[in-house]
Amino acid sequence: MNHVNNYNIHGRSEIYPVDENCYRATTYDGVDFLNLKCESKNFELLNDSLNQNGIHFIYPKSEDVLIKISGKTNRDVRLNYNNTRIFINHDSSANTCTLNSNYGQEISVLSIGNDFFKHHPDSSIKTSLMYFYNTDLEDVFYFKNCASDERITEKVDKVKRFIRITNPRHLLVKSTLSELQYIFIQQYLIKNNHNILNPEEIERIEQLPEIILEHSSIFLTAEKLAEQINMTVDKLQLGCEIVFNCGLMDLINDIKFKTVSNQLLNSNKSFADIAYLNGYANRTYFYKIFHERYKCNPLEF
């Protein structure tokens, strides 16, 4: 049986996990985090959270998680494993949202409530999300499937670990929630906000892997690539995080090291020659990146 201890702080309920089936933390500006295993005692907590007015990023770590909408809108929505759904509720009195799922399935929810927008009156998050995801102005629930992102699982696990070690009020927990919030907003707002990156710019950023391969023999920098695709360095770096879920240098090294590892395994070239041919004239830097990726040096590969 799941047992949780409830603590009421400044009107917000926080939960310390006892059997690791339920975690909750808040940032006190309208952002609320829940991670739980599906079982009867947790359904009520999750449903109460989803029925609050706000924007909810729902991230299931199991298949066949079903959300049932009742009231003005009636629908069943099946959530895909490791795929975020955005759920906007701004008339909770007219509808109810209920989670139907098999026992033991894990789900995380990051909720941005109305309090967040009161604290950030200049924020366009709510307006932009409502505009992008609203297909029916009469509807109060908006769903959109989004691509999976491994960083979300990493941050969720990090929040849970910090709660276990410390408590939901700890700065480490709140800072990680901020990182998680940034990823959600970055992936599912900025990519679709043409005031930040327009479709043509996203298309150019999507060509980066081909450009990196074409110029694999030189040491690539953000400035060189920005010039190649006619974009500012800041937009290039932000766009890389959004489109490829990683930093620009990580993307460059990911692509180049596929070639490096293949050449090490299937050619007679020395590792020094392979490094040079792939634009790594600085052998120390090459060794450092190689060891970070493969936990060994090139001779041991």
Describe the structure in your own words.
This protein is of the alpha+beta class and 301 residues long. It has 2 domains: 189 residues, Jelly Rolls (Sandwich); 102 residues, Homeodomain-like (Arc Repressor Mutant, subunit A). 44% of the residues lie in helices and 21% in strands. It is built from 12 helices and 10 strands. A 5-stranded antiparallel β-sheet has the order 3-4-10-5-8, sandwiched between helices. Strands 7-6-9 form a 3-stranded antiparallel β-sheet. Strand 3 and strand 4 form a beta hairpin. Helix 4 runs antiparallel to helix 5 and helix 6 crosses helix 9. The longest helix is centred in the C-terminal third of the chain and has 19 residues. The radius of gyration is 23 Å and the shape is elongated. The N terminus is likely disordered.
Concise overview:
By secondary structure, this protein is of the alpha+beta class.
**Sequence of strands across the biggest β-sheet:** 3-4-10-5-8
Strand content: 15-25%
Q: Give the helix proportion (percent range).
A: 40-55%
First-to-last CA distance: 48 Å
CATH topology of the largest domain: Jelly Rolls
Please give the largest β-sheet. 5 strands, antiparallel
**Overall 3D form:** elongated
Radius of gyration: 23 Å
Low-confidence spans: 1-16, 132-145
The assigned structural class equals alpha+beta
What's the CATH class label of the largest domain?
Mainly Beta
Domain count: 2
